[in-house]
Design brief:
Elements: E1 6-11, E2 14-21, E3 29-30, H1 35-39, E4 59-62, E5 67-70, E6 73-74, H2 75-81, H3 84-93, H4 99-110, H5 120-123, H6 132-142, H7 156-182, H8 195-204, H9 215-227, H10 235-244, H11 250-261, H12 269-280, H13 286-294, H14 315-330, H15 337-351, H16 353-357, H17 364-374, H18 382-402
The structure holds s-citryldethia Coenzyme A (SDX).
The site of s-citryldethia Coenzyme A (SDX) has 21 residues, from helix 17.
C-alpha cells in the first residue's frame, strides 16, 4: 500500500492526517494506527462493522454484488469446476496448482488422515450425548498434546506440517465425533478415497460390511466443503487470528475458531435453520414465523437469512440451492416438505418489504442443512461439517498473519463507562 492520500481530522484544536490506502478491491481504508498516539482518542466500532482488522490477499467479498472470490477466483466457478483439495492448495499457497503440485499436495494430506491412536481414548471421556461440536473443540485443542513437533509457530517448517495435519485430520475427528455420538465403532480413513468420499465412508460405513460411496453424494459433499472454505474476517476467522497473534499453537487457535463458529448467529445457523424449518412444519405456518421475525419484541430471527456483508444474495446459497435440488432428485426425495417450506419461505421473505428494506437474503446456511439432512446427517453434525470445511480458511488466514513481519498481538481498547476511582470501604462501614 503506497497511496499518499490523507484524511484530515480536526477536533479539540487538533489537526490530524490519517493516511488513506486503496485496496485492490473494496472500500479505501483509513490508517488509524497513530490516532491514539497523536490524537489521544480511540475509535469506537463494536462488532467491527466499519473496521478492517488486517491486510489480506486470500478472500474477497463484494457484498453489494453478491460476489465471493478465493484468491480472485469466483466461488461458483470453483464449486462447479474445481474440487476441495485443489481449493485448499489455492487458499494456502495463492495460486492454482500444476498437476504435479496437486498430486504431491493431495498425497501429503492423504498420508496424515489418521489420528495418533491414543487420541481415540479422548473421545471416550465424553458422554455419548455430547454435541459433536463439544467433542471437536476438545479433541482439536488436544492435538497440541500429541503433535509437539508442529507447535513452534516461529518455525515455517512446523507451521507447514501443522497446516497439513489440521486439514488432513479434521474429517477424521468430525467423523469420529459422529460415530461416537451414534454409539458406533470408528471407521479408519481409507487412503484410496478422495477427501469427500473418505469422510462419507468414515461417517456411514460400518466394520461389518462393504460401503460404496455414491459419487454424486461425494461430489455434493465436496462442493459443500468448497462453499464453506473461507470468508474474509468473519467472527471465527477473527477469533483464530486473535488467538494466533499471541503466538498460541495452531491447534489451540483452530479449537478457538471452532468454539466461535458454534454460535447460532454464525456457523450454528445451519443446524438452527433446519430446526426452524421443522418447527414451521407446513407452508401455511410461514406467515406466522415471518411476522415473529419482524416483531422487535420477539428475539426470533429467520435462521439462514441475513448477513453482515452480503446485502444482496449470498452466492454460496445460490450454488447450494442447485445442489439441494440435485441431491434430493438423486435420492428420489421428491415431496420433501422441508425443501418446499424453504423455497416458499425464501419467496415470501424476498417479497416482504421488511426483508427487502433490510436486504435480508438467504445465506450459506439456508440450504446446506437440507442437503446434509437428505444425505443422512443428524442436525448436530451440520456445524461440525461447516467447521471441517472452514479449517483450511482458518489455517490459511493464520499462516498469512504469522508470516507477516508486522505482526503485533491483537489488543483492542474500550469505551469505559464504569465507576471511576473510589476507595475500598470495609463491610462493617457499608
Ligand atoms: C454465517 O461473517 C460471515 O462471513 C459469516 C459466514 C461465514 O461464511 O463465515 O457467512 C457464515 O455466519 C452466515 C450467517 C448465519 N447466521 C444466521 O443465519 C442467523 C440469522 N441472521 C442474523 O442473526 C443476522 O443476519 C447476522 C448475524 C447474520 C448478521 O447480523 P448483523 O450484520 O449484525 O445485522 P443486524 O443483526 O444488525 O441486523 C440488521 C437488521 C436488524 O433490524 P434493525 O435493528 O435494524 O431494525 O436486520 C434485522 C435485525 O433485527 N435482521 C433480521 C435477521 N437478520 C438481521 N431480522 C429477522 N431475521 C433475520 N435473520
Amino acid at each position: 500500500m503506497s497511496d499518499k492520500r490523507v484524511a484530515k481530522l480536526s477536533f479539540d484544536g487538533k489537526e490530524l492526517e490519517l493516511p488513506i490506502y486503496s485496496p485492490s478491491a473494496g472500500p479505501d481504508v483509513l490508517d488509524i494506527t497513530k490516532l491514539y498516539a497523536e490524537g489521544d482518542v480511540f475509535t469506537y466500532d463494536p462488532g467491527f462493522t466499519s473496521t478492517a482488522s488486517c491486510e489480506s490477499t486470500i478472500t474477497f467479498i463484494a457484498g453489494g454484488k453478491g460476489e465471493l472470490l478465493y484468491r480472485g477466483y469466483p466461488i461458483d466457478q470453483l464449486a462447479n469446476e474445481s474440487h476441495y483439495l485443489e481449493v485448499c492448495y489455492l487458499l494456502l499457497y495463492g495460486e492454482l496448482p500444476s498437476e504435479d503440485e496437486l498430486v504431491e499436495f493431495e498425497s501429503r494430506v492423504t498420508n496424515h488422515t489418521m489420528l495418533h491412536d491414543q487420541m481415540n481414548h479422548l473421545f471416550r471421556g465424553f458422554r455419548r450425548d455430547a454435541h459433536p461440536m463439544a467433542i471437536m473443540c476438545g479433541v482439536v485443542g488436544a492435538l497440541s498434546a500429541f503433535y509437539h513437533d508442529s507447535t513452534d509457530v516461529a518455525d515455517p517448517q512446523q507451521r507447514e506440517i501443522a497446516s497439513i495435519r489440521m486439514i488432513a485430520k479434521i474429517p477424521t475427528i468430525a467423523a469420529y465425533a459422529f460415530k461416537y455420538s451414534a454409539g458406533q465403532a470408528f471407521v479408519y480413513p481409507d487412503n484410496n478415497l478422495d477427501y469427500a468420499s473418505n469422510f462419507l465412508r468414515m461417517c456411514f460405513a460400518v466394520p461389518t460390511e462393504e460401503y460404496v460411496v455414491n459419487p454424486i453424494l461425494a461430489k455434493a459433499m465436496d462442493r459443500i466443503f468448497t462453499l464453506h472454505a473461507d470468508h474474509e474476517q468473519n467472527a471465527s476467522t477473527s477469533t483464530v487470528r486473535l488467538a494466533g497473534s499471541s503466538g498460541a499453537n495452531p491447534f489451540a487457535c483452530i479449537a478457538a475458531g471452532i468454539a466461535c463458529l458454534w454460535g447460532p448467529a454464525h456457523g450454528g445457523a445451519n443446524e438452527a435453520c433446519l430446526n426452524m424449518l421443522r418447527e414451521i412444519g407446513t407452508v401455511d405456518r410461514i406467515p406466522e414465523f415471518v411476522a415473529r421475525a419482524k416483531d422487535k419484541s420477539d428475539p426470533f430471527r429467520l435462521m439462514g437469512f441475513g448477513h453482515r456483508v452480503y446485502k444482496n444474495f449470498d452466492p454460496r446459497a445460490t450454488v447450494m440451492k442447485e445442489s439441494a435440488d440435485e441431491v434430493l432428485e438423486l435420492l428420489g426425495i421428491e415431496d420433501n416438505e422441508i425443501l418446499k417450506i424453504a423455497k416458499e419461505l425464501e419467496r415470501i421473505a424476498l417479497e416482504d418489504p421488511y426483508f427487502v428494506e433490510k436486504k435480508l437474503y438467504p445465506n450459506v446456511d439456508f440450504y446446506s442443512g437440507i442437503i446434509l439432512d437428505a444425505m443422512g446427517f443428524p442436525t448436530s453434525m451440520f456445524t461440525p461439517i461447516f467447521a471441517m470445511s472452514r479449517t483450511v480458511g482458518w489455517i490459511a488466514q493464520w499462516k498469512e498473519m504469522i508470516g507477516d513481519p508486522k505482526l503485533k498481538i491483537g489488543r483492542p481498547r474500550q469505551l469505559y463507562t464504569g465507576a471511576t476511582h473510589r476507595d475500598y470501604v470495609d463491610v462493617k462501614d457499608r
